[in-house]
Write a structure and sequence with these properties.
alpha+beta, four-stranded antiparallel sheet, 31% strand, seven-stranded mixed sheet, 8 helices
Length: 397
C-alpha cells in the first residue's frame, strides 16, 4: 500500500529530466495518475532503446520491474507532442499540451534494495563501495567499529523504550532553530531517537532517521516519517534537504575521522544555502562559574550515583568495556577524559536494573569548530554553548 504521495503541476513547455527513481528510497511499484492534459513520456534503456508512451488524461501509469529500476523516464520540455491519431488511420498529428497535474504514489523503502539491477542500484553500489573500503581498512577500523557496535548500537536497541520515556523535553534553542523555517521547508533529523523534534513547526516537512531499529519503531508508532540507516551513509541523494539536525549523535563516533565523516555526510545531503544544526556533549560542564544541568543534582543523588558507578564493573557490558581500556564515567560528575563509557541504568519490567555503557567522545572548547572547518563547502554561521553541549550552525556554500 503506497504511503507517500507527490503532487506536481506542469504547464505547457515544462518537463521532467530523464531519471530513475532512487532504488533505496522507494519500493518497486510506482503509480502515476495524470489529470488535465495528455503528455508523452519518454523511456530510455541503457542499451539505447527508446519508447514513447502517451499518458492520456485520467490514465494511470504503473512502473515495476525493468521500467521501474532500469529504464529512465522523463518528459521533454515543449508545448506540443507528435502522437498517432487512432481515429484517423493511426496517422501522425500534433497534440497541444495543457496544464497537467500528476499524482505519484510510492511506498517508502525501509530496508536496503536487493533488486536484480545491481549496476543501477544505489543501495547495492553503496554496499559494494563499503565492502571495498572495509577491505582496505579492515584491520584499522575493526576495533572502532566493534566499539560502536557494542557500546552504541546494541545499547540503544536494548534501552530504547526506557530512553524514549526520558526524552520528551525539547531544548529551547533547538526549538527556536526549527521554528525559524518557512512553510514547505524539507528537514532531515539524523539520529532522531524517539522523534522528539519531529513534531515541531507543522508547516515544514520533516523526516527522521536513526541507527536504532527499536527507536525508529517508536517514531513510527508516534506517527513520524523516518527510516533506519547509518549516519555515515545516508541513503538519500545529495543537495536534497533545506536543513538538517544532528542532536547528540556525532559524539558517539569513536575516531576523529569518523566524526568528521559524519559532518561531511550531513552536509552532503544539504542543498546549497541549507543549514545544519549540530549538538555534541561538552567536556566543559562548567562555564562562567556555573555548572550545567547535568552536574546540578543534590548531594544525596550524587552520592547515590558514585556508589552505583563503583559497582558498575559488574554490569553485563563490562567484560567488553575492559578490552577497550576506556574509563567508566561516574554519572552527574565532571568529565575526566574525552573518551569514556557512560553508564545507563535500565529500568523496565523485564530488567532488574542492568547497567549498560554507552561510548562518548566529549568535545573540548573549539574542537567542534576545528572539525567542521575541515569539511569543504561549508561555513560556520554560529557556534555556542548550550546545556552542557557545544553547538554549531553550518551553512552549505
Amino acid at each position: 500500500m503506497p504511503d507517500q504521495l507527490t503532487v506536481n503541476e506542469y504547464h505547457p513547455g515544462q518537463g521532467i529530466p530523464s531519471h530513475v527513481d532512487t532504488h533505496s528510497a522507494f519500493q518497486e511499484e510506482i503509480l502515476s495518475l495524470s489529470l488535465g492534459s495528455d503528455v508523452v513520456m519518454e523511456f530510455k534503456h541503457p542499451d539505447g532503446r527508446r519508447a514513447n508512451v502517451l499518458l492520456r488524461r485520467r490514465s494511470l501509469l504503473i512502473m515495476n520491474g525493468e521500467s521501474r529500476y532500469l529504464w529512465t523516464h522523463g518528459i521533454t520540455p515543449r508545448k506540443t507532442d507528435v502522437v498517432r491519431d487512432k481515429e484517423h488511420g493511426n496517422s501522425l498529428t500534433l497534440s497541444y499540451r495543457g496544464i497537467r497535474t500528476s499524482f505519484t504514489f510510492r511506498t517508502v523503502r525501509r530496508q536496503e534494495c536487493n533488486c536484480g539491477y545491481s549496476n543501477k542500484c544505489d543501495s547495492q553500489k553503496r554496499l559494494q563501495q563499503c565492502e571495498k573500503e572495509y577491505d582496505v581498512c579492515e584491520n584499522a577500523s575493526k576495533k572502532e567499529s566493534q566499539l560502536e557496535t557494542e557500546h552504541v548500537h546494541k545499547v540503544y536497541d536494548v534501552i530504547a523504550d526506557h530512553f524514549s520515556h526520558t526524552r520528551h523535553s525539547q531544548w529551547p534553542r533547538v526549538e527556536r532553530f526549527m521554528q525559524s523555517f518557512s512553510t514547505g521547508t524539507l528537514l532531515l533529523d539524523v539520529g532522531c531517537g524517539n522523534g522528539k523534534y519531529l513534531n515541531l513547526n507543522a508547516s515544514t516537512y520533516k523526516i527522521g532517521c536513526d541507527r536504532s531499529a527499536n527507536l525508529m519503531s517508536i517514531c513510527s508508532q508516534r506517527g513520524f516519517q523516518g527510516f533506519c540507516c547509518d549516519a555515515l551513509h545516508l541513503p538519500v541523494r545529495s543537495d536534497m534537504f533545506d536543513t538538517c539536525l544532528s542532536i547528540a549523535v556525532i559524539h558517539h563516533f569513536s575516531t576523529q575521522e569518523r566524526r568528521t565523516d559524519a559532518v561531511r555526510e550531513l552536509c552532503r545531503v544539504l542543498r546549497p544555502g541549507g543549514k545544519a544544526l549540530i549538538y555534541v556533549w561538552a567536556l566543559e560542564q562548567r562555564t562562567n562559574g556555573t555548572n550545567s544541568n547535568y552536574i546540578k543534582v543534590s548531594k544525596a543523588k550524587c552520592k547515590e550515583n558514585v556508589s552505583i558507578e563503583k559497582n558498575s564493573l559488574t554490569s553485563p557490558n563490562d567484560k567488553n568495556s575492559r578490552s577497550y581500556n576506556l574509563p567508566v564515567h561516574t554519572n552527574r560528575t565532571h568529565f575526566e577524559s574525552q573518551d569514556l563509557l557512560v553508564p545507563w541504568h535500565l529500568k523496565s519490567d523485564q530488567s532488574g536494573g542492568d547497567v549498560y555503557h554507552r561510548y562518548y567522545h566529549v568535545f573540548r572548547n573549539g574542537e567542534l569548530e576545528e572539525m567542521c572547518l575541515a569539511v569543504p563547502s561549508v561555513k560556520i554561521v554560529e557556534s555556542y554553548y548550550d546545556k552542557g553541549n557545544w553547538c554549531i550552525i553550518l551553512e552549505k556554500t
